Amino acid sequence: MPMIAIIGGTGIYNPDTFETIREEFPDTPYGKPSAPIMIGKINGVEVAFLFRHGKSHEFPPSSVPYRANMYALWKLGVKYVISACAVGSLREEFKPGDLVIADQFIDMTKKRDYTFFMDKTVHISMPDPCCPFLNGVFADTAKQMGIAYHTKGTYVCIEGPRFSTRAESNMFRQFGDIIGMTMVPECQLARELGMCYCSLATVTDYDCWKDEDVTIDMVMKTMAECLDKVLRLLELGLPKISEDSGCSCIEGAKGCGSLDAIQ
């Protein structure tokens, strides 16, 4: 069974490097995942790939079936979840085209399903939401590739689908490094299930606090220019992920009993 999952967009799925073996589209207690989960290999490593927003990008950030996605991956036996995403920069030194391997998040969303436990009280500990083992693997790989990257970054997650106002952007700069729309609740749902989570965020713009207003065309253009770099990062990094990571991500789930409580 696949041990590693990649959640991303249509650009991240590359039929030239992804050898598809089969598809799974399971029912879950939370409905269907956003798309059939493709199971195959990248550089000889078995991977489960899921289109976060659906194959036709039909799910905006607030409507992504996050619980169904994460539950379906967990039932398939996934231990490591790698999120490939686009973000805006809240820092001058985080330039468009740079890779940010986020290590923290601040939740500014408003109306999502944040937990699997709506009928019982489960308090999960996650002071460090992103997996240090996975972050280290991709930091080493980025260094090996010689690309511009940052190993520390606080991801401010907003509701979307609109981009920030100028006032919001300047406020977010007081406590965040990058801004996006999907890390929450994806990251915390992974922790409830005892899965390790890593965010590989490509900076596409400076939000609207700096020189120009952000547009979807700007985001798509920069992401397309960086696509080969992200794909190469995955190809080189995935073989370095081992079963025995030595990380403690699963301890948060064990400590609160979430793995025993979930069906």
Please give a structural write-up.
By secondary structure, this protein is an alpha/beta fold. The protein has one domain: Nucleoside phosphorylase domain (Rossmann fold), CATH 3.40.50. It has seven helices and eleven strands. Strands 1, 2, 3, 4, 5, 6, 7, 8, 9, 10 and 11 form an eleven-stranded mixed β-sheet that branches. Strand 9, helix 3 and strand 10 (178-180) form a beta-alpha-beta unit. Helix 1 runs parallel beside helix 4 and helix 2 crosses helix 5 (216-237). The longest helix is centred in the last third of the chain and has 22 residues, at 216-237. It is globular and about 50 Å long.
Summarize the structure.
By secondary structure, the chain is an alpha/beta fold.
Rg over CA atoms:
17 Å
User: Under CATH, the topology is which?
Assistant: Rossmann fold
What profile does the largest beta sheet have? Answer: 11 strands, mixed
Shape: globular
Any idea what the CATH superfamily is called? Nucleoside phosphorylase domain
Number of domains: 1
- CATH architecture term: 3-Layer(aba) Sandwich
Beta-strand proportion: 15-25%
Q: Encode the helix/strand succession as letters.
A: EEEEHEEEHEEHEHEHHH
Compute the average pLDDT: 93
Residue runs with pLDDT of under 50 for 5 or more positions: none
SSE inventory with pairings:
Blueprint: E1 4-8, E2 18-24, E3 37-42, E4 45-51, H1 66-75, E5 80-89, E6 99-101, E7 104-108, H2 132-145, E8 149-150, E9 154-158, H3 166-172, E10 178-180, H4 183-192, E11 196-205, H5 216-237, H6 249-256, H7 258-261
Helix pairs in contact: 1-4, 2-5
